[in-house]
């Protein structure tokens, strides 16, 4: 069945666009990128230079793509009064495309479901959990000792000595689980850029029962089709899910609602998808994992996610530091989060609005070919009061976007990072939401907070001399809902800001000629960087073309720049 064409409409997964104050709107033309859509407000688009393809955006490269100039002025950290002039003209369009349900798309990924034959085989297999007790398996108490440390949650964990047992409930069988793997602690210079906390892999996993075994499979969503289209089964057959690991079922779980497996080797043996990435192995000549120097270091479970940490040690020909050891040791964090059964409604890319998008192949297209389509990355925001939202009132979202400021951030810069995050509140208010984006400091009494936990979006501070910052995010690969983000602020971003300020203003600004900027000026620069990187984590690429929107004579006018700043978009680079 072909995808129906529709304008943006409110459902339980998106927001209803409301007319602008003057009743204006713009409606998308038919295109192979997706259905007609409508947004509040008028879009003002400028062609940009270059092509932007990366999710992380070093400030030393000026990559970009077509994008609406949504007039988000940067923090003018050269202005001693420090006005945060985030004028967000046209942000209604930005925020609606970001937040609203745009178009309808009911496509299942190629790896979305087990085939009917597999499902039937599972149902007929002798390993159903209630039958496990009659299948000759040991009782739970014979496998997990009373001294084990148990943590209940999405997947209940049992630590017994060096072993990790996982209780997998029947309700998780077949469900999609996103696993995000990060290097939580790193040997010096291993990552070249950044320290502990950097994401190295993410994948969607699925548990599948096969007799007395439990298989862990990796789902794929590169090919799609309508589930009621005959070609759907062919897409399934050509997207067979590889088996990451097979586990012997040891016993029923404690309450007999699932099964128990020993998952120790999944995290401590050389499973390539859960260890050092291939490029690092090649770069440092990592030959093999040393099991004698690898071990589990932690396991925690929460209602919606389960985290496991392990120390992995590799024999390496050319380690980045401590070369005499011929060794690389890292601590890996693996956070498993349950994805919603019903994915968020997809929103197609539009050439007039710059968003990070992901290409995939749709075999249900009516274009008489396997059609490439692009879906944007965006957060899910649902109005707490749909009727009030539709009538034009400002409402709170059911779940706000919350960024936690890393406790490792120097204290003097924390207020500026917090302001940079909350500068985006004005944009969300234009989209009809109040308090939609918030900055918080983790409570010192909150023992559950962990910056590596996929439940928390954070602005992290890395002890690294790389003069940059980055804004990557973790997405649901089915329809690209942003799950969380971790902004990387490298310590020497300060040197980049100082150099920018000197080069761009020192000719007429004596305070820019010193070796160091005064703390207030540097703080405003850090605030700008935080706001810029938050924009990336909201799905927005660079917008360098917006610089062309300001006439040169205006840029030379102190009165004009003090009022408007030097660029209409926070996604541009600041120019003094």
Set down the secondary structure blueprint.
Blueprint: E1 25-27, E2 38-40, E3 45-46, E4 67-68, H1 91-99, E5 107-109, H2 116-124, H3 129-132, H4 140-143, E6 149-151, E7 156-160, E8 163-169, E9 177-186, E10 198-210, E11 213-218, E12 223-226, H5 231-237, E13 243-252, E14 258-262, H6 264-268, H7 278-284, E15 286-289, E16 295-301, E17 305-316, E18 327-338, E19 357-362, E20 371-376, H8 386-390, E21 401-405, H9 414-422, H10 425-430, E22 437-440, E23 457-462, E24 469-470, E25 473-475, E26 482-490, H11 493-505, H12 519-537, H13 552-555, H14 558-564
Parallel strand pairs: 12-19, 21-22, 21-23, 23-26
Antiparallel strand pairs: 1-2, 3-4, 5-12, 6-7, 7-8, 8-14, 9-10, 9-18, 10-11, 11-13, 13-14, 15-17, 16-17, 17-18, 19-20, 24-26, 25-26
Helix pairs in contact: 9-12
Task: Explain what this protein looks like in three dimensions.
By secondary structure, this protein is an alpha+beta fold. It has 2 domains: about 25-105 and about 345-565, no CATH class; about 105-340, no CATH class. The chain is built from 14 helices and 26 strands. Strands 6, 7, 8, 9, 10, 11, 13, 14, 15, 16, 17 and 18 form a 12-stranded antiparallel sheet that branches. Strands 21, 22, 23, 24, 25 and 26 form a 6-stranded mixed sheet that branches. Helix 9 (about 415-420) crosses helix 12. The longest helix has 19 residues, at about 520-535. It is globular and about 85 Å long. It starts with about 25 loop residues before the first strand and ends in a 12-residue tail after the last helix. Mean pLDDT is about 80; it is low at about 1-135.
């Amino acid at each position: 069945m072909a995808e129906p064409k529709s304008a943006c409409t409110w459902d339980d997964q998106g927001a209803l666009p409301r007319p602008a104050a003057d009743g204006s709107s713009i409606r998308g033309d038919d295109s192979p990128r997706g259905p007609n859509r409508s947004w509040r407000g008028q879009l003002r688009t400028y062609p940009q230079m270059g092509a932007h393809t990366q999710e992380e955006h070093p400030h030393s490269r000026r990559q970009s793509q077509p994008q609406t100039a949504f007039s988000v002025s940067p923090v003018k950290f050269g202005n001693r009064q420090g006005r945060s002039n985030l004028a967000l003209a046209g942000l209604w369009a930005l925020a609606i495309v970001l937040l609203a349900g745009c178009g309808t798309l009911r496509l299942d990924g190629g790896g979305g479901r087990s085939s009917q034959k597999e499902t039937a085989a599972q149902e007929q297999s002798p390993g159903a959990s209630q039958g496990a007790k009659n299948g000759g398996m040991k009782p739970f108490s014979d496998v997990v000792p009373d001294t084990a440390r148990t943590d209940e949650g999405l997947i209940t964990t049992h630590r017994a000595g060096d072993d990790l047992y996982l209780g997998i409930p029947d309700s998780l069988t077949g469900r999609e689980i996103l696993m995000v793997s990060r290097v939580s602690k790193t040997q010096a210079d291993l990552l070249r850029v950044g320290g502990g906390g950097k994401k190295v892999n993410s994948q969607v996993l699925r548990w599948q029962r096969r007799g007395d075994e439990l298989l862990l499979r990796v789902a794929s969503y590169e090919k799609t089709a309508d589930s009621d289209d005959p070609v759907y089964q062919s897409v399934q057959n050509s997207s067979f899910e590889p088996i990451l690991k097979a586990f012997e079922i040891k016993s029923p779980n404690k309450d007999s609602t699932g099964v128990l497996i020993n998952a120790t080797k999944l995290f401590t043996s050389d499973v390539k998808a859960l260890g050092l990435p291939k490029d690092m192995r090649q770069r440092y000549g990592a030959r093999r994992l040393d099991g004698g120097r690898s071990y589990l270091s932690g396991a925690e479970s929460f209602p919606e996610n389960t985290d496991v940490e392990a120390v992995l040690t590799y024999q390496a020909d050319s380690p980045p530091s401590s070369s005499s050891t011929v060794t690389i040791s890292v601590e890996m964090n693996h956070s498993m989060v349950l994805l919603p059964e019903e994915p968020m409604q997809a929103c197609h890319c539009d050439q007039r609005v710059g968003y990070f998008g992901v290409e995939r192949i749709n075999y249900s297209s009516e274009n008489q070919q396997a059609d490439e389509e692009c879906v944007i990355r965006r957060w899910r925001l649902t109005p707490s009061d749909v009727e009030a939202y539709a009538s034009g009132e400002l409402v709170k979202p059911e779940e706000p976007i919350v960024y936690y400021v890393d406790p490792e951030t120097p204290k003097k810069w924390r207020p500026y990072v917090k302001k940079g995050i909350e500068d985006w509140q004005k944009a969300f208010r234009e989209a009809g939401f109040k308090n939609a984006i918030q900055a918080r400091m983790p409570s010192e009494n909150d023992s559950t907070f962990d910056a590596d936990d996929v439940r928390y979006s954070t602005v992290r501070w890395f002890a690294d001399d790389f003069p940059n910052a980055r804004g990557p995010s973790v997405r649901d690969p089915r329809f690209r809902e942003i799950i969380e983000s971790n902004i990387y602020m490298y310590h020497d971003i300060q040197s980049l800001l100082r150099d920018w300020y000197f080069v761009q203003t020192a000719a007429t600004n004596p305070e820019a000629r010193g070796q160091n900027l005064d703390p207030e000026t540097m703080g405003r620069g850090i605030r700008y960087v935080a706001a810029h990187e938050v924009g990336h984590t909201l799905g927005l690429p660079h917008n360098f073309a917006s610089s062309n929107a300001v006439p040169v004579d205006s840029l030379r006018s102190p009165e004009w720049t003090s009022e408007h700043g030097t660029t209409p978009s926070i996604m541009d680079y600041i120019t003094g």
